[in-house]
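SUBJECT: protein chain
CONTENTS: sequence, C-alpha cells:
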Amino acid sequence: MRVVLLAPPTSPVDAEALAAELGAKQLDVLKVDVDGPGKERSETLKGALADDGSRLFLLGVRLDAEEYNGFKASCLEQKLAFVRLPGPLSATAIAHQVMRQVGWRLRSQLEETAS
C-alpha cells in the first residue's frame, strides 16, 4: 500500500525508515505549510488526493475546520482512508492512531449495514 504523510515543513521524517516500520510498500512525505498561502496549501492537498496510487493519508498537520472538512469529504467520496495524527510522527504513535481510527470507522460501517 502506498501511504502519504502530510507533515509540517519543519518535521524531520525519515520516510524510508517509517515505511519499513509501518509495513508500507511506499511512504511519501508531503510537506504542508499550514501557515503559508491557503491557495498553495489547497493545491497541495488536491494534488495528493488526485494521485491514483495512494490509499492511506496520514494527516500530521492541523488544518482549519473548513480545509479539514473539505479534505475529509474528498477522502470519503473517493473511498480513501485517512487518519488524523494528534501526536508525534513516530511509527508507534502512527500505528496506534491508524488502528484506532480506521477500526472505529470500520465498526461504524458495520453498524450501519446491520441496521
